[in-house]
Here is the input.
Amino acid sequence: MSERPLSPHLSVYKFKYTLATSILNRLAGLTLSLGLVLLVYWLVALAGGARSYAQARSILSLGVFKLVYGVLLGAFVYHLVAGIRHLIWDTGRGLERATAQRSAWVVAVVSIVVTLILAYWVLRPGAYAP
Amino acid sequence: MSLRGPLGRVLGRGSAKHGVHDWWLQRVTSVALVPLSIGFVVSLLALPALDYATLVGWMRHGGTALGLVLFVLVAARHSQLGVRVVIEDYVHANGLKALTLVSADFAHVLAAAAAVFAILKVALGGRL
Here is the structure.
C-alpha cells in the first residue's frame, strides 16, 4: 500500500486561501461533531431533572466553556456559509477560478459578520442571567 | 499461467459503488440542516434564560420538540458521513482505520439515540 499515492495529496498543492477555505470547512465540521457530544450531554442532563441539570449547568458555565462556545459558534457559522458555497458548486456553478476566489472572500466576510452579531447577542448585557 | 479470465481478475477489485449514495446523502442532509440548524440556534438563543424551567417549557412546545428531534437526527447522520470521509482520508493503517470507522459509527448512533430519548423524555414528561 505504502508505495501507492494516497489522497488527499495535501503536500503537492501550492497553498492559497481557496485551499484554506476548504480545509477550514473540514475542521469546522469536525469541531461541530465534537459539539454534538456536548449537545447530547446537555440534553441528557436536562432529561435527568432539575438537580441533574443544575449540576451540568455548573460545569457548563465554567470559564473554559466560554471559549468552547465561541469556537463552536464560529465553526457553526463558517460551516453553514461555506457549506452553502459547496452546495452551489455542486450545481456546477461558480467553479471558475476567479469566481471561486471571490466567493472565498464572501464566505469569510459573511461568516465573520454573522459570528460577531451572534456573539454580541449572546454576550449582550443581562443576557441569560441565572 | 493463470486460468482466470479478464472478468475474474477485475471483479471485486473496483469501488463498491456505495460512494455515490454517501455523497448524495451528505448533500441532502446539508440542505435539510440549513433550516434545521438555523432554527435550533435562533430558537435557543432567543430564550430569555437558560434555567431548567425555561428550557423544559421550551421543549414541551410541540414544534420545538419536533424540530429538535429532526435536527439531532439529521445532524448526527451528516456528522457520521463527514467523520467517515475524514477517517478514510487520513487514517491509512487498515486495522486502525476499521476500528476508528466502526467506533465513529457507534458513537454517532449512540449520540442520536440518547438525544432523541432525552428530548422525548422532557417533551412528554409529567408535571415539573
User: Anything to note?
Assistant: Helices of chain A lie at 17-47, 50-60, 63-90, 97-123. The mean pLDDT of chain A is 91. The interface with chain B takes residues 1, 6-8, 26, 29-30, 32-33, 36-37, 39-40, 43-44, 46-47, 50, 53-54, 57, 76, 80, 83-84, 86-87, 90, 118, 121-122, 128-130 of chain A (CB under 8 Å). The two ends of chain A are 57 Å apart (CA to CA).
